[in-house]
Input
Amino acid sequence: MLDIFDQLRKEIEEAVIDTKEAVEDFRVSYLGRKNGRLKALSEKMRDIDVADRPVFGKNINALKDLVNNRLDQAQQLLRSSGSKKGKTIDLTLPGRKPDLGSLHPLTQTAEEIQGIFTAYGFTIAEGPEIEDDWHNFTSLNFPEDHPARDMQDTFFLREKSVDIDAAVLRTHTSPVQIRVMKSSQPPIRVIAPGRVYRNETITFKSYCVFHQVEGLYVDEGVSLADLKQILHMFARAMFGEDVKTRFRPSFFPFTEPSAEFDVWMPNKDLPAGGRWLEILGCGMVDPNVLEAVGIDSERYTGYAFGMGVERIAMLRYGIKDLRIFYENDVRFLEQF
Ligand code: PHE
Output
């Protein structure tokens, strides 16, 4: 009799039940009411000695427990492998690209401007964004209490007093010219990119903070022709070989003569077929500025220019409203 129990236990333990159907077959074949094998075994109880019946019954119950355990296990296994379905790793799929940021369009434009001028032998200079009145205005030949100082609506951080100069957020990158000329001797050939601030009403074309790239070349015999030449080369590198440019007479306290430099922007929607857009101010360094920094204005001459990075980026990318540069909207930024 024990043989039968041993054999059945072995069978139950070794049965392969790895599908829903196998589980059901397994259950029916052992526990089924009609032909279940344990059922059949219980019916044999009648044929054996009364004294042997308790042991016999115990053995049957042990087998029933074993069957139930195996059923539980198998069902659990099926459930967990079912939930893993579809999550299997397909190593042949192409990888997912991580989201990488990109350089801001203003940074890209500024870097491109720098690249053009460094190729012509300019080096890069920097200066502080908080300036004193002397570097931002006085040394640049802005007369004391002259309305020219109001021309650039200035953010004042500290008023002038008897023993200390006013502190301002620099309104242009021209004070870097002064710093470079004070700390080095001609020949000087630098560009100075940086942030500048003006207390202006915020509109589609003006903002309280923007970027400029200043240029300065001081040496013996530097002429207006050199200035026109470098700016024309710059425009060609930036906007293409057949760009049209023009100089217009203008005024800045720190240059004489002064000019503004325009680039022709073709636009089929306009009756003229396009329009002139100012991208920078420029001129020959005023002798008063050279003298203010201790450079002999009889011996040396120089040219200077200052361009608006936002202006140039707007032209290049066809952007109509400059405020969008400062909104940090990824839908805009991820296009660059
Ligand atoms: N600093 C002037 C501005 O901000 C531009 C400029 C720079 C003009 C250098 C002449 C020479 O408008």
